Amino acid sequence: MANQVQPIFILPEGTQRTTGKNAQRNNIMAAKLVAETVRTTLGPKGMDKMIVDSLGDITVTNDGVTILEEMQIEHPAAKMVVEVAKTQEAEVGDGTTTAVVIAGELLRRAETLLDQNVHPTVITRGYRIAHEKAIEILNNLAEPVTEKDDTLLKKIAITALTGKGAENAKENLSDIAVRAVKRVIERDAAGHIHFDKEHIKLEKKVGSAVEDTELIDGVVLEKEAVHPQMPKVILNAKIALIDSAIEIKDTEIDAKIEITDPRQMQAFLDQEEKMLRTMVDKLANVGANVVFCQKGIDDAAQHFLAKKGIYAARRVKKSDMEALQRASGANIITNLDDLTPKDLGHAGRVEEVKIGDEELTYVTGCKNPKSVTILVRGGTPHIVDEVRRAMTDAIGDVAASIKVGKVVAGAGAPEMEVARELRKFADGLSGREQLAVFAFADSLEVIPRTLAENAGMDPIDIITELKVAHDKKQKWAGVDVNAGKVMDAWKAGVIEPLKIKTQAITSASEVAQMILRIDDVIAGGKQDAPRGPPQGMPDMGEM
């Protein structure tokens, strides 16, 4: 009887492996499901999702990246699509749903081509060609914008806020978003614009209404004065920022102080008090009337500061100290002895304000603040959270528009125009890549189709009308979700930064290409499998 060949296992026990078309099908299915999850949230008529985590905490939102992060997705291919949303959030701050929906549609169209035996490499090459052409078309479509175009910038912010929980206060919120961004953008010597979203602090406070959200030209700290005797309001504030404790330092090594006489004890305590008094005198002599300390302030020092009429707050976060530095122009000092009048910052008013049951410190009236705070208000914690997310989108859109200097209309208009131009371009291609370029063009139409579906309109009718309008050279023809027909999105004031579209198409295209190239999924087994000879190998002890 011939020797039976034992199977040879090269992977650890418990490893799961999916190969070939099965692997591709599974990955595409997972990615499509992620896109389907957020698809219903797209556009002004998009619905919200309620996500309840294992602790029972509730999140109600229609922000794509928030939904996907809160869902804690496990499937590896689905995770790759979630990364698209995270990239979009980091780069622009808005358009996360758009990016994910396009990625899902690109894979759905690719699946049809795979069924026709078009090789994945051919599809990815076609997608790459289409992506480059799409970016070129978008750049040619876009209209210029500068930071002086307040009306246009406000329309961009309103577009970002529409369809979010903050929509009823969009006039006030859009105005705040534009003013906040204009305050903190900076130009370098070469004229390039720099914007850091960290310079706009979004502080949430439950209570009042969304309309009462306000922009503060300075910083709001979740801190109160350290001593009740301190003044509640300081006008013409001279601010010292101290990154060291206003306390007596303990010795670095264990020290033993031997006291043989009660008078020595009193002298020791007097000396401690004198050192603290010297520290406070130093602050007063330099001219500081407001002190923000990153570390602790000794009880005795608090008393001396109150006596001198100095407002002080302690254990201020590092990020808040840096915000105060940018807003007031003060320098952060690590050694009190080095403090000079030049290190002090200036603010028109520093005051302790009670909102709800919390005390906050407002530092306002800074001359040219490079750091501002938006105090977000709303009736419940969930509303405040959603308004904060909406404001993040609006700020990101306004900043991206100014930075790149180009904008496009929204409402699905640019996607329709790019799809139309791509089809023209594909007609001139030969080979199977042409099929992939056509698929890419069809995929972009998912945005206007979804906008129509979410508004309860017939997507086939709308897409047909849009195609007719774009063929008549109406490049900004988009979906009017309120009237249920086609409109000129630019005239209707639906405007978005070019960066949203280019980033969404780029990241969606790249992730689709990556998923299509995978033909083997190897999921590792458990690490705690008993160690022994590999299966199919004889145990050396039997030899």
**Share of helix among residues?**
40-55%
Envelope shape: elongated
Number of strands: 21
The fold-level CATH name of the largest domain is GROEL, domain 1
Which class of the largest domain in CATH terms? Answer: Mainly Alpha
Rounded average pLDDT? 79
Sheet/helix structural class = alpha+beta
CATH superfamily of the largest domain: GroEL-like equatorial domain
- How many separate structural domains? 2
Query: Count the helices. How many?
Result: 16
% residues in beta strands = 15-25%
Kindly report how far apart the N and C termini lie: 22 Å
Low-confidence stretches: none
Rounded Rg = 31 Å
Q: What characterizes the major β-sheet?
A: 7 strands, mixed
In terms of quaternary structure, what is this?
A: single chain
Q: In CATH terms, what is the architecture of the largest domain?
A: Orthogonal Bundle
Which terms summarize this structure?
GroEL; 16 helices; alpha+beta; 21 strands; single chain; 543 residues
What do these coordinates show?
- The structure is a single chain.
- The chain is α+β, with helices and mostly antiparallel strands and 543 residues long.
- The protein has two domains: 16-144 and 408-522, GROEL, domain 1; 219-368, GroEL (3-Layer(bba) Sandwich), CATH 3.50.7.
- Helices cover 46% and strands 17% of the residues.
- The protein is built from 16 helices and 21 strands.
- It has helices at 20-39, 64-70, 76-91, 96-115, 120-141, 150-161, 170-184, 262-286, 299-307, 318-328, 381-404, 413-427, 433-444, 446-454, 459-471, 498-516; strands at 16-19, 49-52, 58-61, 143-144, 186-187, 193-194, 200-206, 214-216, 219-221, 233-242, 290-293, 311-313, 332-333, 345-355, 358-364, 372-378, 406-409, 477-480, 485-488, 495-497, 520-523.
- The radius of gyration is 31 Å and the shape is elongated.
